[in-house]
Amino acid sequence: MLSDILYRVRSLIRRKRVEQELEDELHFHFEQAVEKGIRAGLSRDDARRQARMLIGGVDQVKEECRDVRGVRPVEILVQDIRYAQRMLRQKPVFTAVAILTLALGIGANTAIFSIVNAVLLRSLPFPEPDRLVRIFFSNPGLGMRGVLYSVPELEDLRSRAGVFEYVTGTERGSVNMTAGPQPERLEMITASVNYFRMLGVTPQIGRLFGPEDETPGLAPSAVISDSLWRNDFGGDRGILGRTIRLDGEAYQIVGVLPSGFRNPGRTSAHDVDVWLASGFMSPADPKPLRSARAFPGALGRLKPGMTLDQAETRLAAMAAEIRRDFPADYPAQAQWTVEIVSMQDDVVGKVRPMLLVLLSAVTVIVLIVSLNIANLLLARASGRQQEMAMRAALGASQERLIAQMLTESMLLSFIGGIAGIATALAGLRFLLQFMPRNIPRLTEVNLDWRVLLFALLMSLLTGVIFGFAPALYATRANLLPAIREGARGYGSGAKDGRFRDVLIICELALAVVLMVGAGLLLRTLRSLIEENPGFNPTQVVAASVNLPFPSDPAKDPYHTLARQIAFYRELGRSLASIPGIAQAAFVSHLPTSGISFQFSLGIKDRPVRTEEDLHAKEILISPDYFRVMQISLVRGRYFFESDEEGKQRVAVVDESTARRYWPDGDALGRRIRMGQGAWMTIIGIVKDVKQDGLDVAGLPHVYVPMYQDFDVADGYVFRDFVIVARTALPVSVLEPQIRRQVGGVDSSLPVYDVASMDELIDRSLASRRFTAQMVGGFAAVALALASVGIYGLLSFMVGQRSREIGVRVALGASRADVMRLIVTKGVILAVLGIGAGVLVAAGASSIMSTVLYGVRPHDPGVFLIVSVLLFIVAILASYLPARRATQVDPNIALRST
Amino acid sequence: VSTTIELPQGTLDLLILQTLAPAPQHGWAISERVQQVSSEVLSIRQGSLYPALHRLERRGWIKARWGVSENNRRAKYYELTKTGRRQLELEKDAWLKLTTAMAQVLGIT
How far is CA A436 from CA A343, A351, A525, A850, in A? Predict the structure, then answer.
């Protein structure tokens, strides 16, 4: 076995030497034979003749010996590659165009795939990530998913469910950190002590939470992120034991997370920088009652061997038991239950459709590129028929010729693939800059082996696509006429023409599909931009400022509602004193931000109907909010400063809510309540606001005056208000002013996320805009490629049929006739291609419906515009070759036989 | 009418191995030797000797070495390797079994 390999390797790498030895050996034999003949009395010439006869043809013997070496396929391949190289070099323009388009196509595809790979395909960077889940509590009977939960319910998951190895409660929030000269706002997570053990993380220095942090309330230890460590603490390795103040309370830094660690959760504007551990059982925490639901999130690690389905079934059964055991805490109509979703889905589920749309679009581009090259190769192949016929006549087998042609295409696609990888490498960084920030895991994007494999497969695939047709075509050619007629014959038969037509039609059809996709996405974007948000975002600036919320009431400067209200009123006055600010107000959740409090909605004097889905979102505002945002009043009145604690509880609802629940009566004066809160009287109806994002129809919204109701849930007081100000000043001018005014009221409060409302709306569309622009760009490329394809085909046709055209002109055909001949061809191709494309697009566009808004997948307008646009481009592309056809001089054309 | 018979498939290898058993030889000598011992009955197209030699070399049964011939020429000598020698025994054995069996079937014995 070993000798065999060594023999083959030697035959390959010392080929010259081996050949020489064979030559010498046979020569020696020959001479011996001749000498023997001479000894037997023959003349030298006769002896040579006889020797030659005895040996048989020397070349044949050599060939047989070469076959024995077992490296023929490799040698043939090497030969074919050399030949292919020569052919490619002979046509530098063709080769350059082909490689360039391939590099761009494969490069774009590889770049997008590397993002898909990192975001969707690669597992989360934790040990056994399949077992990590996010846990939701839901009231399907009320159509509410992800409702708050209570401490006993968290305990149920641990002791009663029997499906989890670890369960950890998490509370995401932000805190004011005072460590340096400027207070800073940090994203923080408060989690159960086992949080990091559940994820399976090891720190880069220090320790993570452990048994020493087990306390009923918050442990005095903090774990910080690598970026906070580097940015705020200069990467000091002696940081352990240092104290940081979060919302006025001191914590010791006990550990720093590794740089790759990101909190597994939906990506918001900021990454989490601080982690605290809590037992969630201290007096400051919600009471351990089933009804004291105040926790938003829980994560879990399933027991080994437990599947998601098994766990779901078990949890549903547990929820049913709990509902039965505590009927008072779980109203029957809510159908309270526990659900889980894999953490991977939770993190990336939302961006999947968008990324898949991008990947499909860029794959269509690669297909079009391949078809284009196939067409070019086919044109060349008909020019090479004579060569092929000659080689076939000289004894090359059909397979050999196909292999030869395929080698050429594969070499081309391989070079294109390598260039594509280089393009992807260069372009990826550029692309990432334009990716919307809210796509998770973008920092993990790189070119790993999977991406490289993908790129190679892609280039292989393109090579096969554009290689096979010409290879088959060129070798199937009829030998005799090809040789007889020579290169300039009528060589290309009808079959060849038809095949190239089919390629062009496919190319056009693919372009239609891509253009329709782009059209739908752009229409979506436009309808979102044109969507009336229900308020006037121009000249509004928003800024966040949060009151600290220390766990120890003694350290809380804003312990009572009265003090909080006093703070906001004073801040409001200070802000109004800034020259350039017309009016300022506060709101719990900015419109289009997509977050708000969600409660079941109670309506006085209305029988509870179990099948009805009564819930609403509550937004706390200061009285001037509607005026600042210019949300128009439909009926009733806005809030007054006097709508404060101790007065009649009031609320404002939006128009659709009023219409929905009081379709034939007046909502004004009716009484509603949120959850189990106090009854409020509706005193005003305002226009609908796109509170949950421009693309969300939205639930009923109930506005409540903040000075009456900070206490949104049992014991949970909201302290994270956003400032909104109507101003003509730009953000950059206003920001330091706002900072100064806030600092004047309380110097420990950081101001963050200062941005104009226009910008925030814009940001909420970032993902969609990016997708629409990318696909739009791809569609433009597809259009260009398709028009180049038509142009190339028709030009080739004009060249080939110049003699026929000459005859026609000689026989009296007018310029218009000749023109019509060519343009008609273009029109037929365009109509067939567009027709096929419309059919395919109509079939495929419905899979896009999840990413569309305000436009139907079969929007006739989009289909019409795309068809007309492509048709016009096709006609233009046919015009140039047609004009060239009219310039055919019959004298020259007919004589050049 | 030819007095020589075509060599059955595979026997050429056996003949070559047998010829090389006593001492290393070059191709010409092997060819001469095979003709000689087979009493000029077995004809080997001299050309087909070389592919066979190369095949045996690739299999590792013989190995080649350049040496000097009796008439002072550079010639490629082949010699049996250890595996080659073992193979020769195996093939001889197999051959014997085959011919005996064939003879019995054909009722020649």
Answer: 21, 11, 15, 19
Residue A620: φ, ψ to 5°? -90, 135
Write phi, then psi, for A193 (nearest 5 degrees). Answer: -60, -30
State the Cα–Cα distance between residues A525 and A761, nearest whole angstrom.
12
Over range A544-550, report the average pLDDT.
83
Q: Three-state SS for A549? A: coil
CA A383 to centroid of chain Cα atoms: 44
Choose the closest CB to B54 out of A56, A57, A65: A65
- B31: which chain A residues are within 8 Å (Cβ-Cβ)? 29
Q: How far apart are the first and last CA of chain B?
A: 28
- Strands A243-246 and A249-256 turn out to be antiparallel
- Answer yes or no: do B46 and A31 touch at CB < 8 A: no
Measure CA A34 to chain center: 78
Angle A819-A820-A826 (CA atoms, 0-180°, nearest 5)?
A: 95
Closest among A397, A76, A385, A2 to B58, alpha carbons compared: A2
CB-nearest to B47 from A21, A60, A69 is: A60
Task: Assess B67–A contact: CB distance below 8 Å, yes or no.
Answer: no
3-state secondary structure of A342: strand
**Residue from A325, A317, A307 nearest A131 by CA:** A307
Nearest CA distance, A262 vs chain B (angstrom):
59
DSSP string, A145-210: ES--B-HHHHHHHHHTS--EEEEEEEEEEEEEEESSSS-EEEEEEEE-TTHHHHHT---SEE----
Return the structure tokens found at A35: 């000498």
- Output the furthest CA–CA distance in chain B (Å, rounded): 51
- Helix, strand, or coil (residue A57): coil
Which two three-digit tokens encode residue A397? 């087998």
Reported as a single tens digit per residue, the pLDDT across A727-743 is 999 999 999 999 999 98
Q: What are φ and ψ of residue A686, in 5° steps?
A: -115, 165
Tens of pLDDT, residue by residue over A72-110, are 778 888 888 888 888 888 888 888 888 988 998 999 999
**Encoding tokens for residue A862?**
């989009």
pTM of the model: 0.77
Instruction: State yes or no: pLDDT of A811 exceeds 50.
Output: yes
The pLDDT assigned to A788 comes to 86
A6, A18, A29, A55: best to mutate for the B interface, most B CBs within 10 A: A29
User: CB within 8 A of A465, min separation 6: which ones?
Assistant: A367, A370, A371, A374
Closest CA to A74 of A168, A155, A163, A9: A9
pLDDT digits (tens, 9 = 90+) for B68-101: 888 888 889 999 999 999 989 998 898 889 888 9
- Chain A nearest C-alpha distance from B3 (Å): 16
Tokens of A388: 């092929």
**Helix, strand, or coil here: A472?**
helix
Q: Give the distance from residue B94's alpha carbon to the nearest chain A alpha carbon, in angstroms.
A: 22
**Dist. CA A802–CA A792, nearest whole Å:** 15
- Residues near B17 by Cβ (< 8 Å), separated by ≥ 6? B56, B61, B62, B80, B84, B87, B88, B91
| Tokens standing for residue A185 | 């706002």
**Cβ contact B24:B78 at 8 Å:** yes
Beta strands A184-191 and A274-278 are parallel
Ramachandran angles phi, psi of A288, nearest 5°: -75, 55
Q: Which of A619, A394, A519 is nearest to A869 (CA)?
A: A519
How far lies B48's CA from each of A62, B16, B53, B77, in Å? 10, 12, 9, 17
Quote the percentage of chain A above a pLDDT of 90: 30
Amino acid at A423: T
B45 chain-A contacts, CB cut-off 8 A: 54-56
By residue count, chain A amounts to 897
